[in-house]
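One-letter codes give the sequence; the integers encode the fold. A sample entry reads:
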Amino acid sequence: MTKKQKKMRTRIIITLIMFVILLAADKTGLFDNLPWFILFAIYLVPYVIIGYDVIRKAVINISHGQVFDENFLMMIATFGAFGIGEYSEALAVMLFYQVGELFQGYAVGKSRQSITDLMSIAPEIANLIDADGNVTEVDPEDVSVGDVLLVRAGEKIPVDGTVLEGESFVDTAALTGESVPRKASVGDSVISGCVNGEGIIKIRVDKAYEDSTVAKILELVENASNKKSRMENFITRFARYYTPVVTLGAVLLAIIPPILGMIPLSDSIRRACIFLIVSCPCALVISVPLGFFGGIGASSKAGVLVKGSNFLESAALIDTVVFDKTGTLTKGEFKVTNIIPNAEAGVTANELLKIAAHGESLSNHPIAKSVLNAYTEKNTIDSSLIDETRTKEVSGRGIISFYNGKELLLGNTKLLDENNISYKPSDEAGTIVYVAYDGIYQGAVVISDVIKDNTAQAIRMLKECGVKKTVMLTGDREKAARSVAGEIGIDEVAAELLPADKVGRVEKLLLSEDNGCKLAFVGDGINDAPVLMRADVGIAMGSLGSDAAIEAADIVIMDDDIRKISTTIGIARKTVRIVRENIVFALLVKAVILILGALGLTTMWLAVFGDVGVAVIAILNSMRALNYKK
């Protein structure tokens, strides 16, 4: 409990003791002969002790033009009870309202705990090593790119960087939910917010604090509450009109029946007070956003960052999941599995690999690196053979370079077709790099990607949680794509796509979606940023430390465990179900008690339950969103 909550608890205990004593005295007849103003003064003391802050808030809000809120309703209702001589009921209403508020505040604090834990990943210090080797503690915001930092065992890594010296195991649980530490040695990248498990490492700062992973994540978490779901927006609008309407209804209920001679004024005021107490919308206003907050908290515990409750609500409606292949369904670790020289060109397998490796040596593409790695295992690259100034990459096609002064084409069939090269298509499964030199087809290099170990299980889990269709989009050849899809259980495949084609394909899938259903796109967050932004729900996979993923995606899975997609959908569906339960329950109970109150068939005690009791039950129900089990 906070200090404020402990202070409220003390006030409640004091008031409760006084209330019990006063109630006992009243029931035993001790107050029978006392004048009304003495009774008023006696009950006013505990009322002020327990309710002064509610009255103060109501007066302040009224002065600011914010009249219709729960403080106003409680003030008017209890003032009305005092006005008709129901002192004990006025005190009871305020007392139990404050009990509910205390419980509610405690429950909200508990539901925020997982988000608070995530916020605690922010590092407090950075150990800066100067030119003389001296170590100085500085604020992480004061370090610059290129600085060298010392990270001791048990300390948080303050900014994103690269290990220069030492070896350790880094605990990434706060970011990824992964309990197994990751090994970090010289040359490895490490990200801010993770904890250095053992040993001492020195890192070179790669990003300033404001651009580092931890700063971006904290900013997203802090801003997540600004992105409200449709249900939250509905409740906000509902409360804006609902409260003034019921207040007017209470006024009419207090005035019209006595004027018409139907009931005495005291009875009509009692009914109006009951009407006001029950009409307080706090059960809805608090429990609905709290439910979504709990869902976001449950996601963060699983290593999934949801940028707002609107995205969590959309995730609950996902029935189609579209995947990028490379780096998402596969490891992105390409290896040369076959070399097919063109016998008519008179080139050997070794010569073909040499030509291809030199042509790919200037590219950072994973396919290019795999060809280069296959050649450099036993050989070295002669950079003088390649004209760097005339080398260019053609998006979705391949590379055009010059080897020994003659044009060299490395890429797919589209590149060769566009350059009128006659070739023999290969039907092998895998990515095919066709090689043409000096206008003559030289052969092909077959490269295969490795499917992630948990991919097939992840697709199966999506089907089990209610996803109707899975689709894979890739720039790979049709046969290679279908080979991967068949192995992991993907329903549909679209192969040999350019980056722009992926957006068009997602557009078509969006048009074919059933009303109310959502489409999610899962990608690595770098090359797929346009598609991530176009989909109903963009999910970035394997994007730890990727700025593009954090910016473009709606949901960021903080490691590359594709199984967490189904976990996120499950959390989203449970959250939405809980929120709907709260809305239906609160409205139904309030409607029943409002009708009974208007007819004079209930008491203020039941009205208190209709307000405080319903709010507490709805909040407890919302807290269930924090505890998700598969």
The first strand starts at residue 126 and ends at 129.
